[in-house]
Amino acid sequence: MSALLDVRDVDVAIGATRVCRGLRLRIDPGQCWALLGRNGAGKTTLLHRLAGLTSGGRGRVTLGGDDIASLQPRRRARRVAVLLQHSDRGFGASVLETVLSGRHPHLGRFAWEGADDLAIAERCIADTGLGALTGRALTTLSGGELRRVEIARLLAQSCPLNLLDEPLNHLDFGHQAAILRLLRERCVDRSHALLMVVHDLNIALRHCDHWLLLAGDGRWHAGRRDDLAAPELLSAAFGHPVMRIDTPAGAMLQPRL
Amino acid sequence: MPRRHRRLLLLAALAAIAGLAIALTHGSAAIPLADVARLLVSDDGSVHDRIIDELRLPRALSAFAIGALLALAGALIQVLLRNPLGDPYVLGVSGGAAAAVLGAMLLALPAAWYTPLAAAGALLSTLLVFGLTRRGDDWRSDRLLLTGVVVAAGWSALISFVLGIAPGERLPGMLFWLMGDLGDATRPGVPLLVLLVALPLALWRARDLNIATRGLLQAAALGVDTTRLRREIYFVGALLTAAAVSHAGAIGFVGLIVPHLVRRTGATDHRVLLPAAALAGGTLLLLADTAARTLISPMQLPVGVLTALLGVPMFLFLLHRRGAR
Predict the structure, then answer these.
(1) Given A88, A112, A140, which is nearest B218 (Cβ)?
(2) What domains can you pick out in chain A, each with its CATH number?
(3) Do the chains contact at A105 and B222, CB–CB below 8 Å?
(4) Which of A32, B35, B63, B145 is the most exposed place for a label (fewest CB within 10 A)?
(5) Do B269 and A93 touch (CB under 8 A)?
(6) Segment B196-205 mean pLDDT
(7) Does B38 touch chain A (CB under 8 A)?
(8) Is the confidence at residue A173, as pLDDT, over 50?
(9) String of DSSP letters for B152-206
(10) Chain A residues whose beta carbon lies within 8 Å of the beta carbon of residue B271
């Protein structure tokens, strides 16, 4: 079986700054990946490259066996959904219209969204707790509500692979827990996988089974969480001491504050 | 299509028909609506027949088509720049056209040259802005906006120079042209044809445009080929504007305001916004032109003055209406 995402010897750089050299990893269905690294390490740039939004540099990214750079954009968007770090409120489109835009790659040129598209969008809106805001314009939403609209849009896109850039930004801890549960439920199973940029080491520890850790100088570590959740490795990558504390509720990673 | 969208389009179409009826019945000779309807289908060679066939109908269709072109161009350019202040003239189109036509007027070239010269000036300026903006692969909307504004300022200086050295008797014609005037727009064929070609093209991209309002990266993530989309919007927008400007001069305000008016009614979806804006823009210019030729007849006002006089209160009303989105 071919992997959902296969990354072979990929180099990514931002100007003269190395993000990663010779990156190799494979994302299979059922996996939940955390992309970790300090500010400016290039997590977003790498995520865009993996999503096929940028190209160039050495290496090859394949999506279900097809080279992502040669995949037609609309077909690509049916296989990989992306949550961007920042989102724009646009010109006053409503919550429903925005979530429905997730169906865009599935629809023909002149087609209007059908009853099933509407049902999918409404379910995603309900699942993200936005039921009361369906008709509201994006311009009137709070930051956390806007974030959840984007997550609903990503879910409506119904892709096997989901790449999320800081999905928990602007969310309070209650909504963080609810969204994490929802993402695990909808994007991590026999046919789906997910990779997300997170800053909270304990969320990565608790919710993600695989980690991709950027060291900030082109070096990287990818693999099972249990092999990477080591205080020395993290302290070096973040340039700040982290310790591991065993608690009755399980292990915790605690940066020195 | 949701019902409220269908209702809006129907309303806009009815308004356009009503506007056409008003334009055809009003003028130096008042012709009752029943006569207008009869004369449109059967000719009787009377004075009224000739007024309708040779004067009012071509001018009304020109006004409608040009208004629709400007509104459509405005809607597209606002997405391209992702700036609500986007206006078809930002691409430098009107400046190039105006400089060419005013130069021709200064040299007393025949009036038949104005339209082709305006089109040439518009396209030259469009390519200039495009070339200056598109160095390398970095095409940011703020850079396009700044380039357009600066190039327009250059044309504006050239226009002021021409106005400054022009002999007094040629000034009124030049000013009319600068403000936008439909007095010589007697051949609606080209603007109507451009409209009929461009509207389906734009509708083909309507859902892509919806997503592009939320950023090009977001659009790319949803499977839109953004490089091609930008280029298409740019050239279709410029073509629409050039077709309008070369026939009627630099009519302001329609392209800026009409898309906003339509968005205020809740139609932010470009599948509805684009046809509704075309209809509303056409109707607005039709009514403004009817007012321009009847208000102080037998004198005529430049229609650009009327579009602003009608558009400003309408826009402010909708902008500040309670409960508006």
Answers:
(1) A88
(2) 5-255 (3.40.50.300)
(3) yes
(4) B35
(5) yes
(6) 95
(7) no
(8) yes
(9) HHHHHHHHHHHHHHS-GGGHHHHHHHHH---TT----HHHHHHHHHHHHHHHHTH
(10) 112
Q: Tell me the pLDDT tens digit for each residue of A205-225.
A: 999 999 999 999 999 999 999
Read off the pLDDT of residues B14-56 as tens digits, 9 standing for 90 and up: 999 999 999 999 988 889 998 888 888 888 888 888 888 889 9
Longest dimension (CA), chain A: 57
CA distance A238 to chain B (A): 28
CATH 3.30.300.70 is held by the domain B3-22+30-47+62-320: no
Domain boundaries, given as residue ranges, for chain B: 3-22+30-47+62-320
Identify residue A140 by its one-letter amino acid code. Answer: T
Beta strands in B92-154 (DSSP E): none
The amino acid at residue B42 is S
Axis crossing angle, helix B226-248 with helix B114-133, rounded to the nearest 10: 150
Query: Residue B189: CB partners within 8 Å, gap ≥ 6?
Result: none
Measure the CA–CA gap between B51 and B45, rounded to whole angstroms.
10
Q: How close A91 gets to chain B, by Cα (Å)?
A: 6
Determine contact, residues B245/B118, Cβ cutoff 8 Å.
Answer: yes
Give me the residue label for tokens 């969208």. B5
The pLDDT of residue B179 is: 86
Buried/exposed code over A24-38 (b: 16+ C-beta within 10 A; e: otherwise): ebebeeebbbbbbbe
- Please spell the DSSP secondary structure of B211-237, one letter per residue: HHTT-HHHHHHTT--HHHHHHHHHHHH
Of A48, A77, A89, the CB nearest to B222: A77
- Extract the tokens encoding A164: 């999320």
Residue of B nearest to A84 (CA): B218
